[in-house]
Amino acid sequence: MTAAADPRTAALEHHAARLRDSLGLFGGDRWASVGAGVALSIAPGTPRAIANVVVYERPARLIGALASIAQAYREAHVGEWAVWVPEWDGVARAGLAARRYVRRELVRAMVLDLSEREPRERGGGWRRGSADELAALNDVTYALASGGLLGTVTVPDRGRIYVAVEEGSAVSALCAIDSADGLECGINMVATPPRSRRRGHARRLLDVALDEASQRGCRSARLQASPVGVPLYERAGFRSEFNYELYHPKEMQ
User: Fold this and answer.
1) What is this structure's pTM?
2) Domains in the chain: ranges and CATH
3) What is the block-wise mean pLDDT of the chain (253 residues), using blocks of 10 residues?
């Protein structure tokens, strides 16, 4: 089966586009090319490999570009990055392993057909939020260093931040970013600190964001979920498409 005939190719292209949109949260479009079909985002102010990612079209070109990728990140003073590898790409996995890259995370690519979704009762307890609120809640939720994302997050023109509120305090947040053609919505940076979980905050925000996306004319929604988040999204109607395996240079461990 050729790449053009492979149904996985379209799903991969959609998720790569939504991933690229989401990186606009970290200061705009900072993509660099290191060869045909290999691109990396560079966000020096962002901790860990949250926004410093490598995507590619063909594994052979990726492997051939690894030295240039490392040099580009060193010149930008970025100490950590990740290569996002679709689970079926054994060639890339083998090539990365041979060059001392290790798999450290697994991310589930998921999609929801908004035409099949019934609107839900929104209720209260939420409002539009700010970039700093989104950053602060992600810092706490994912145990980033104090102030790790503060000052690095901006809201793209097509983005909307939603915040759940309890007793006057922000307790959960997410960002929704529409595709350039307005037909798809990407859900990004969903964060609920441990002390505020199991109260329905993230689900409430997700319902509001999806309802509004549908009203704007979006036909589908996509996201990339951690293993912990998958059950929440499945209950909301998302279905799995494939897994990304995130590979990091071994010396970064």
Assistant:
1) 0.88
2) 7-108+243-252 (3.40.630), 113-241 (3.40.630.30)
3) 62 82 68 83 76 88 95 90 93 96 94 92 89 91 70 85 96 96 95 94 96 97 94 96 94 59
